[in-house]
Amino acid sequence: NLSANGNENVKEDDAITAQIDSLQKIADNFFNAKDFHQSLKYYTLISELRKKQFDEKHPEYAYSLALIANCHYFLTNYDIAFKHLQEAASIIECSLGNKHSDYAACLYSMSSCCHALRQYDDALKYAHEALIIRENTPGKESIDYAKSLNSIASLYFLLEKYDNAINYGQQALDLFSKLETKNSSNYVEALSNLATYYYYSGNINTAIS
Description:
The chain contains ten helices and no strands. It is mainly alpha-helical and 209 residues long.
């Protein structure tokens, strides 16, 4: 009987995994087509299946919450997105630790939500926390680390702390120039941002150059 029950559990788990894989493809297609209402619907179904397959403290469930949050973000439901990300971050912290790259990714996304909500101080706090983790995982020579630097620079600019914005913006630009071509969108954005920071700090000649 124990063996039979075990086999049934395996079969049920395999069936759920297959269903999730199928739904994931549909959800991703809708998301890539920018139909965020439809993608949200399917990512929510995936989340419910993940909860059934594992539990509410499993990283896979946290990842499904992050996907839901992503949809809400693009639907401009920033407060709802933040709550889902906060829950996902809590699960990942408990299961994988607060030094994990996925935890940093949640913090970075939470910062983006606060930025969109114009809660700049909170956004800066989460962005700095993500940056500290990304110093080691994936490391200072990574695109993720450069993006964190660029995000922090933009937040300091919004807080009118132009010297700090220039400092972080220059670090981001230097790293993007090392990791990508000067035609990349990341490099062009960082260069444009840095010029803006110099302009508002009163260094107009540097901004122009």
